[in-house]
Structure formats: C-alpha cells, structure tokens
C-alpha cells in the first residue's frame, strides 16, 4: 500500500480530502480555467496546431497529473517553450496544417511521456541537472525572442516563417508590404491592453474598491477580456470581411480518445526532439513546483514528478493533445487562488471540458492577432537580458555558457541552442576544475594552523614540502596535479618529503588514484617520500579499496601538524617567499579576515 | 630571446651541449635506431601503408621534435594505436594500397600537426584531460586486442579485414582453410621467439657474462634478430616460392620532400579522426615524457609538447610519412641507454636515414609474418585485463567507463570506442557529483568541533539546523542541494535558522548561486533565516560579485561555532537521533579514527 501510494500520491492526499480543501480547489480551478482557455488556444497556434488541440491538451493531462504528481499546486498544460520545440520538431517531418503534422505532435507527446515515466522509474531525474541555470535562462530569453518574432506575422496579418531570428526577420520584412491594417489595429490594441493589464489592471481594480487579493486574481483575466472583446468587435464590425484572420471553426465536443498511430519510423525521427522536450519541460516544471511547495513548507519528489509529467504527456497522446508540462504563471495563480490539492487540476480539466462543449462556437470569430498578442506579452516577460550583465559580473565562464546558448538559439534554432548550451556548460565546468588551486603551506608559528606561504607569515622545513589541494581529484585535473607536484619538487632540490594536505578533497576517482601512484613512483625515483594528511573519510574509504595505501612510500597523517612534527621535528626556518608556488590564486575567507584584524 | 627559447627549447639546451652529452646521445641513438627499424616497418603495415612510409615517418619528425619538444628522452615515431586509428580513418576515404590511401595518411599527419600546434599556441592541452585513465586504459587494451586480431591474417598467410572484433574474427575463420603452412611456421616461430625475448633474453645474456645494463639494452634487439634471421631463412630456403609473403621492393633513398596535396574535401572528411589521433597521441606521449622526466627531476611543459608533437606531424606530412607520437618502449630504451638531450632523437633520425639508403634492398625478402609477430607481441603486452578487476574494486563508476570503452571499441571500432568512453566518463563524473554528501552537524560538547549527528554524540539546538555540504556547488548538484535543504526543513517544523557549513565547498557557479538564492527565498517564505559558515576565500570572493551577500537573510560566520554561539546562545539539547538526515553516507577519516581511540 505504501509502495502503491509512492507511485499514486492521490491515495495519500485523497483520503484526507475534506470540504475546506474542496472549496479552495474549486475556486482556484475556476480562475485557472478562465486563464487557461486563451492560453491553450494561443500555444497550440504557436505550435502550428489547430487551436482545439490546445484545449484537448488541457483536459486529460491535468487529470493524469492530479493522480500521479506530487506538487499540490502545479498547473499542467501547454506552455510556450515546449510549444516552440514541438513546432520545430514537427516541422522537420511534416508541413504545418497537415494531418501528418498533428500526428507528429501526438507522437512527441507519446515519446516524451514514455521517456519521462522511464526516467522516473529509473530515478534518472538528475539528467535535468545538465541544464545549468545560465543555459536555461539564456535559452528562455532567446526562445522568448524567437517566439515573439514568430507571432508578429499574425499581428501584421501576413504569412512568414523560419526557425532562426534571421530567417524570421527576413521573412517578415519581405511580407511587410502585404500587411493588413485592420488586423494590425486589432493586434496592436490587444498587445497594448495585455501589456498594460500585466502591471496596471491590478491597481486599477483596487482603485475600483476590490480587495488586494481579488484584484490580483482578476488581473489575470486580461487575456479572457481581450478574447471576449475582440470576438464581439469582429462580429459587430464585420472585421472578417476586411481581412482580419480568425480562428475559424473549432470542433465542438470532448477530445477523441484513441491510441496514437503505430509509426516506428516517425518515432525514431522524433526521439532527440522528444528527449529535449522532456528534460526542458521537466526542469522548468520542477523548478516551479519546488518554489511553490517551499512557500508552504511542503516538498515534492523529483523522481515522482517525472512520472506525473510522463503520465500527463501519455494522456495528451491518447486524447488528441500535444506535449505539456507545468506552467509558471498559471501555477502561481492556482497557488494564490488557494488550491490545496492536485484535485484543483482535475476540476480545471472539467472546466476546460465544459468550455470545449459549450464555448467553441464562439471561438470561431476570435482573431488570431489577439492570440498572438497573448503569446507575445507572455513570452517577452520571460526575456531577461539583465541576466547577461549579472552573470558577466559573477563569472566569465557562466556568461560564456549563457551568451553561447542565446546566440546559437537565435542563429541556429532551439535544438542547436540547447545542445550547444549543455555542451558548453559541461566543458567549461571541466575546464574550471581542471586547474585546481594548490597552495604551498607553512605553519603559523606557535599554532597548529597551516596557511598559504604567499599569504601569511609562516615557517617551513626545507626538507618537507606541504601542498594543499583545493579541489576534488578526478580525471580532468589529475594530470594537472602531477605537473604541479613535479614542478614544485623540481624547484626545490633539498626536498625529501612531500605532504599533500587533502582537507578540501571531497572525492577521488580512478584517474586521480593513478596520478597519485605516478606521483608517488616519480617522487620515489627522485628519493622523495609521499605523505598525505587530513584525508576525509569517503576518500580514505575509497583509497582503501586499492593497494595505494599499502604501497605508499610515506604515511597518512590525521593532521598536517602531526606530519610536520614527525618529519621535521627540529629544524624549521622562514619560508623562502621568493619561491614561486606552482599555481597562484585564492585564500580562505577566515584567513583574509584574520589578516584584516 | 627568452620568448624564442620557450618555443624553441633547442636554444636552451643546445648552448650547453658538450662531449659527454654527445656520447650519451649517440649511444642511445644507435640502440633506438636498431629497435626502430622493424617497428617502423611493422606499424606502417598495421596502418595499411607501404613499409617505407614507416621509415620516412621516423626521420624528419624526429628532427622536428628535437627542435621543439621539451622532453629530453622522448622517442617519437610511428606507434601502434595511432597506426590503427590511421588505418581506420584512411580506410573510410580510400582503399588500402591505393595512392588515395597514402594521401589520406599524409593528410591526417598534416591536420594532426596543425591541430596540435594550434592547441599548443592556444594552451588547450587540457583537452587531453577529457581522456580519463579508465578510458585510456580500456581503449589501449581493446585496441591491442583489435590490432593483434588484425595481424593474424599475416601469420596465417591469408587476407582478412574488418574494424570490429566480430568482423575480423568472422573474416579470419572464413579464410582459415586457405592458410599457408610455411608462413604459419615462420609467423609462429617469430612470435614465440619475440615473446620469449621480452622476458628471457635479458637473463640469458646476463648468464653469457654481459653486465645487467648491457643485457637489458641488447635484449631490446630481439625484433632485429628476428628480422635478420627470417630474411636469411627466406633467401636460403626459397620460402617466397612456397607462398611466404614478403615485404617486397622497398624504394631506396631519402624521403621525398613535398607539400601534401591541397584537398579541402579530404581534409574536412578527416578532421574528426585527426582530432582523435591528436589527443590520444598527445595524452599517451605526455604521460611517457612526464614519467621519464620525473626520474631525473626534470619537468616537461605540456603546452610546448603539443607544439613539439605538432611539428613532428607537420614534418611527417611534408616527407611522405604518417601520424607519429611519442612511443613508450622506445622512449624507455632511449632513457636507459643514456640519452641526455633531444639531440639523441636527431641522431636516431640520421640512423634511420642511413638505413633507408643502405638497408632497404635487404628488406625486400622480409616476411610480413615476422612484422605481424612484432606487432602482436608488442600490443599484447599493452593488454591489461587485470585493470578491469582492480577498477571494479576501486569504483563501479570508473569500471563502467572502462568496460563501456572496451566493449564499444571491440564491437563498433576505435572511433566509436573513444567517443563513448569520453562521454561516459563525463556523464558518470557529473552523476557522481550530482548527489553531494550533506550531513546534519552538531557540536561535540565542550569543544568548538561540529560533526555528523549520525556518527557522533553531539548536541544541537532545535531552532538551528546545521548542514555541512561536502562538495563544490555547481549546476549538476545545485538542485540536489535545494531538495536536501527543503526536505530537512520540512521534517523539522521548529527550525528558525539554517546554517550551511561551507568548509568543503571549493567553488560555486551561477547555477549554485541561483539555488542558494532560491533556498534563501523559500526559507524566508517559511519564516527561516539562512546563514553560511566557514566560507572559503575564493567562494567568498565569487559571492561578493553578486548581490547575494547583501540580500542574505542571515549572516556569514567565520566559524560554525560562532554561528551557534550567536543564534542559539543558551538552549541546546541532545540531537534527535531518530531524525533522518537528508542524505546518508560518509564521515571524515579523523572522525573515524577518533572514534576508534
């Protein structure tokens, strides 16, 4: 039962469900439903799919997540970035508007669902960690710009396309002479209203006498107001006849339940894209879920979240939808409106189902320019160019990863962008840790403390060289350590003992073990013994699994002081400050402050 | 002048060259020459090239390395693994034996030379660090097996081929009925003699009254003895008429000097292979050079080594050779024979040039089976299956990287093998560090020391949660830390302060900073303040470049004890040992030993 409840969290919270929780969930669901209708239509359009697919993706997937997800307040459904990734991937195998294109979107949901569930069962959630923060941030900024650019065609009432900023821009400029003025008026009016509504609607509602909370919630209904007003305008002013493009007939009714077509060739072609959709969707969703859970001192289980999102995508695949994940804005609304359990998601699904049954005839007259305006205003709020400046100040490495991701995404498309970003951040991490800080250390007279000889007035023994390694040892830096030791010893002919202080070494792998053995043998050939001091438990346990400890020419000392006391009991002298330590940099914070004192 | 000497080390050691150095170098060169003649013929055959190409690759490249290299004793020339990589790469663009094939090998030398020099000038030697020890070790074992299998055709006197063990094996089994018995006799005799000579020749020579040193050096001449005896046997017994394949006419004379043909399409096709050849050749060569330099307390400069090896490959490209690098066995012989400066390499080049002028007519009657035997005995000595067992005992992660490299190399070829190995070791490293050890720490009563509550009898404050993070913080583990803190706090409703002890945190990147900020905001939402203690200097400097320190809800304490004294001055109690700490494992070595006392 406990095991079952782990995979079906509904069995846990469902047993304690009461009237109070129901009221909170129902109110939140009503508000999220109103917010989700225009969003799901708009994101389906962004994905190049019929608008109704967005509605379908907002029904069963929400029920599936309610059963399997661990976040109390995450609101699942179509989101901007995943819609763009869907458009890119489906566009490589079929023409937008074709039945094959819709089938490709279904296949992406299916593959993504299978991958997410598999990663959850195998506990592989860590894969999402490969997306470093600068890469995600850069990717979202760049894809926000790409998405906004791709929607300008609907505002202008023209056709344009392309997967890069240059292609899109060129296509738009060429199409500019064909712009439809009534469409432009509707589109710009909607954009202006929605941009104002994000910031200005809430204080305006408060001035009308609404409470702060109610005003905050109602301010999220801007898109619905824009949708309703624009439908009225189209009908009243006969704008369709004046060239304003509308959504057109939306099939009325519930989503069709059917297994996606069996098409291994199509699946094979979409596997890489489905993998990107899965990990990007997961990374974004988990981050939202964790932030909201923390506010109520709850916690989520990332591996079970994989299963929850996987189930949602499988549900999308069998009910005419396309890939979904947790959305930021609507989850915050759900949370603020008082959702208490995942049941709120199921009630939202009910609301969208009702809309599919009842409201679809009205949507036929909805201008696509208004949907485009919804998307543009939503994604531009995600563009954060200031992050470039902050990241530059913090670290050139992280800046390089972020800037690389942005440039490649804008210049070569979303898939190239995310792959470049991940490769860059992994390589930069390896490079950053490939030259560890190593300090020659000496004793602060009269104490048991050892510090960098370049930073402190310390004493050393000419025969004993103490080196403190400030990094875990693994393959990327193992050879650097060899070189550092070799150089340090080559500069000090009188050295007879090398003591590596390992207090900051948190781990060691086989390459580093090999390097330690090489260092030991090379030192031995030169008549020098190798010792270690202050080795941490996990590292010691690891070393004990090899024959290194037995073969060691020197000893392993509990403290560096003990090593010095044993190896150089009498003769200490001032360290030769002129001697260049092998690698320059760094000091510990307490050291610096002690100096200041 | 100093700057010039950095790029041309010959300007440094050349000025101090004396008679003593000349004698040492000349003797070493004579012995290495004798050893190198059969090796260079054999490895050219392994690379699918005419044997004379091996001689050409052992002349100018050695002179170039003598001018630009930093190792005093590294012996450069054709080596087994690089020859196999050359065969694989050239085989994809041309048929072995064709002029295009030879041109492809030249192009590989050219590209590899350009890449190595470029990496040297840009100081990118760190790229070789991506080859972890288990990957190199597994790759050499697997390619040794592949090479040995590929040479069995010459021992059997048949034709067989393939780039994987399965293809090679199948091809050999099918060809078995055509085996030539005289060839088999010659081949097995040579293999048996060479295998014995590796171990048995030296004691035998010592029993004959030679000194240990002389015996050791002469024992390396086994291959030359086999070559000479087999040539005599072929001529005396008329073995060619009985179907024993021989090397055939070898052009007499010095290598032709010519720029390699300008062929951008060919170069583009060979770039990935040339890159693999470059980094594998460099990694192997640097490891040999460092080991030998250490024995005399010398040091080498890895970035200048890139330039030296690059120059050697460029020299090979303009003199009819193919890719070269530093060889292990011949460098050891060079060292043992008393080489004192890189001039020994230049003298060896002179010896090989002399052989090309004088000895080539004799080589026409050399059986290819003897060359194959030379290769088989040499590469099987590199096969180290015991390393699998040792690595398994040391770490499952490293074992997985090694086993993966071996299996993919044997099953899918050398290029797939090395790429898989690198990808595996990087992913496993990221995974290994993605779940850092985090301990809940408490105070050892009466001391300023804090230890893991699960390992020690310590006291805690119910309001202050101390967490020690035993890993540098970066993108792969940033989210794990978020989850750990969140879970730890969710389990302890009375907590009002969280103090992260950062004594073991050597670095922090933008993702980790973002996570710390998220942790801080989430804790703040739950009414908890976040503090840090014992932050190292480099980490503190990094944090100071963001606004994290200003925004921090708590303080940064120099010592964890200070934090406790400030935040929980009076009330401490026994830690609730039943409380499960967020992540289990590990302890420090001093702690364990102190317990033992």
Automatic annotation (TrEMBL), chains A, B:
Subcellular location: Membrane
Keyword annotations: Membrane, Transmembrane, Transmembrane helix
Region annotation Disordered: where it falls in the sequence: 577-597
STAS domain ranges (all copies): 454-567
Cellular component annotations (GO), alphabetically ordered: membrane
Membrane topology: Multi-pass membrane protein
Main location: membrane
UniProt cross-references to Pfam families, sorted A to Z: STAS (PF01740), Sulfate_transp (PF00916)
Domain of life according to the entry: Bacteria
Classification via Gene3D superfamilies: STAS domain (3.30.750.24)
One biological process term in Gene Ontology: transmembrane transport
InterPro entries: SLC26A/SulP_dom, SLC26A/SulP_fam, STAS_dom, STAS_dom_sf
Transmembrane annotation, as ranges: 21-37, 43-68, 75-95, 101-122, 134-156, 179-197, 217-239, 265-286, 306-324, 344-363, 370-388, 400-428
Stored PANTHER family: SULFATE TRANSPORTER (PTHR11814)
Name of the protein in its database record: High affinity sulfate transporter 1
Organism: Wenxinia marina DSM 24838
């Amino acid at each position: 039962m406990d095991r079952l409840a782990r995979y079906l969290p509904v069995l846990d919270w469902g047993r304690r469900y009461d009237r109070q929780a129901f009221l909170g969930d129902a109110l939140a669901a009503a508000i999220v439903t109103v917010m989700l209708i225009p969003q799901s239509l708009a994101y389906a359009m962004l994905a190049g799919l019929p608008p109704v697919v967005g509605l379908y993706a907002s029904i069963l997937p929400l029920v599936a997540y309610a059963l399997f997800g661990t976040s109390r307040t995450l609101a699942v459904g179509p989101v901007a970035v995943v819609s763009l990734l869907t458009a890119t991937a489906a566009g490589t195998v079929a023409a937008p508007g074709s039945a094959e294109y819709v089938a490709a979107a279904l296949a992406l949901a299916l593959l993504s669902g299978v991958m997410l569930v598999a990663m959850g069962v195998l506990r592989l959630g860590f894969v999402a960690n490969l997306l470093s923060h600068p890469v995600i941030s850069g990717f979202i900024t760049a894809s926000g710009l790409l998405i906004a650019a791709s929607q300008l065609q609907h505002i202008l009432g023209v056709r344009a396309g392309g997967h890069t900023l240059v292609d899109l821009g060129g296509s738009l400029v060429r199409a500019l002479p064909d712009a439809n003025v009534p469409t432009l008026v509707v589109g710009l009016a909607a954009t202006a209203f929605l941009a104002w509504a994000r910031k200005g609607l809430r204080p305006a509602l408060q001035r009308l006498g609404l409470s702060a909370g109610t005003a905050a919630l109602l301010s999220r209904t801007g898109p619905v107001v824009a949708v309703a007003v624009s439908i009225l305008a189209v009908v009243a002013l006969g704008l369709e006849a004046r060239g304003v493009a509308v959504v057109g007939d939306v099939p009325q009714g519930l989503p069709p339940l059917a297994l996606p077509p069996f098409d291994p060739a199509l699946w094979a072609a979409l596997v890489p894209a489905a993998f990107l959709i899965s990990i990007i969707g997961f990374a974004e969703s988990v981050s939202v879920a964790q932030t909201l859970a923390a506010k109520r001192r709850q916690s989520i289980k990332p591996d079970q979240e994989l299963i929850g999102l996987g189930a949602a995508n499988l549900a999308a695949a069998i009910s005419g939808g396309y890939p979904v994940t947790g959305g930021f804005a609507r989850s915050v609304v759900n949370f603020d409106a008082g959702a208490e359990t995942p049941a709120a998601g199921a009630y939202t699904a009910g609301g969208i189902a009702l809309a599919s049954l009842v409201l679809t005839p009205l949507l036929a007259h909805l201008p696509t320019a208004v949907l485009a305006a919804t998307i543009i205003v939503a994604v531009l709020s995600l563009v954060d160019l200031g992050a470039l400046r902050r990241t530059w100040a913090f670290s050139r490495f992280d800046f390089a990863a972020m800037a690389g991701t942005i440039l490649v995404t804008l210049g070569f498309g979303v898939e190239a962008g995310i792959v470049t970003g991940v490769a860059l951040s992994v390589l930069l991490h390896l490079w950053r840790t490939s030259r560890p800080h190593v300090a020659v250390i000496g004793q602060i007279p009269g104490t048991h403390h050892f510090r960098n000889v370049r930073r402190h007035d310390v004493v050393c023994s000419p025969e004993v060289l103490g080196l403190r390694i400030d990094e875990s040892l693994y393959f990327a830096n193992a050879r650097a350590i060899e070189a550092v030791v070799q150089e340090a010893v080559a500069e000090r002919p009188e050295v007879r003992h090398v003591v590596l202080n390992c207090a900051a070494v948190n781990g060691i792998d086989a390459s580093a073990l090999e390097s330690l053995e090489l260092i030991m043998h090379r030192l031995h050939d030169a008549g020098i013994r190798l010792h270690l001091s202050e080795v941490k438990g996990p590292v010691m346990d690891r070393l004990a699994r090899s024959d290194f400890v037995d073969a060691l020419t020197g000893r392993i000392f509990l403290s560096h002081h003990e090593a010095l006391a044993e190896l150089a009991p009498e003769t200490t002298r001032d360290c030769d400050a002129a001697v260049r330590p092998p690698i320059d940099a760094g000091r510990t914070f307490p050291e610096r402050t002690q100096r200041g004192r």
